[in-house]
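Propose amino acids for all 126 sites.
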C-alpha cells in the first residue's frame, strides 16, 4: 500500500474493529487486530497500568461490556499519522465511568495493519 488514502482507510477499519471489540467485549476480534506481542501501558486515575495482550484480553473477558450495560457508543478517531509502514492513532473511548484517550501504534505487516502498542490514560472531567 503506497497510497496514503488507502492506508488511512485500512487503519480506520482496524480502529473500527478495535472500538467494536472494546464496546462488545469481543476478545476474538481484539486478538485479530493486535500483534501477539503488544504491550498496553499508561495510567488509570494516576495508577500505573502495564499489561501484556493476554492480560488485557483476560480483563476484557471478565467484565460486562459497555454494550451489555446499554451504554451509548461514543468512541471516535481523533487523528491518524502515517509514515511509511508505521502509524499512530489518537482515539477517544468514553466508556463506563472513564474518559479514556489512547495512543495506538500500528505497523503494516504482510497481513495488513495491526496494533503493536497501546498507551492509555483516563482524563477526569471536572
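Proposal:
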Amino acid at each position: 500500500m503506497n497510497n496514503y488514502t488507502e492506508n488511512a482507510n485500512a487503519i480506520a477499519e482496524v480502529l473500527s474493529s478495535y472500538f467494536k471489540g472494546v464496546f462488545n467485549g469481543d476478545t476474538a476480534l481484539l486478538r485479530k487486530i493486535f500483534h501477539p506481542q503488544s504491550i498496553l501501558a499508561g495510567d488509570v486515575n494516576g495508577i500505573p497500568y502495564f499489561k501484556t495482550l493476554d492480560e488485557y484480553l483476560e480483563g476484557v473477558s471478565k467484565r460486562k461490556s459497555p454494550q451489555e450495560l446499554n451504554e451509548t457508543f461514543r468512541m471516535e478517531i481523533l487523528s491518524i499519522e502515517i509514515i511509511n509502514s508505521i502509524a499512530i492513532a489518537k482515539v477517544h473511548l468514553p466508556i463506563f465511568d472513564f474518559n479514556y484517550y489512547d495512543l495506538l501504534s500500528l505497523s503494516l505487516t504482510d497481513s495488513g495493519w495491526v496494533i503493536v502498542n497501546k498507551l492509555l490514560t483516563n482524563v477526569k472531567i471536572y
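Strands lie at 34-44, 47-52, 76-83, 86-95, 98-109, 112-122. The chain has a mean pLDDT of 96.
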